Amino acid sequence: MEERLRTLSETECYERCYGWRFGEDSVKVLRHEPDPRNDSSEMGERLRRLLELRLDAREPEAA
């Protein structure tokens, strides 16, 4: 069995598990740019038409 020479600190344990990433210790904020292809009114209309198609394709309910 291998014997440790000294106990590791919490920081040393973290670095052994996750590695040390120099320069990556900051948060980068990215701006969300809306996709012009996904116009919400167009998407809503498309969903409405798809729902109508599904409703029309249903078999009549038995009374």
Q: What's the end-to-end separation, in Å?
A: 78 Å
Succession of helices and strands: HH
SS-based structural class?
A: mainly alpha
- Proportion in helices: 40-55%
Total domain count: 1
Nearest-integer average pLDDT? 80
Structure description:
- The protein has 63 residues and is mostly helical.
- The chain has one domain (10-57).
- Helix content is 43%, strand content 0%.
- The protein is built from two helices and no strands.
- The protein has helices at 10-18, 40-57.
- The longest helix has 18 residues, at 40-57.
Characteristic terms for this protein:
63 residues, mainly alpha, elongated
Give the gist of this structure.
This protein is an all-alpha fold. It is built from 2 helices and no strands.
Task: Outline the secondary-structure elements.
Blueprint: H1 10-18, H2 40-57
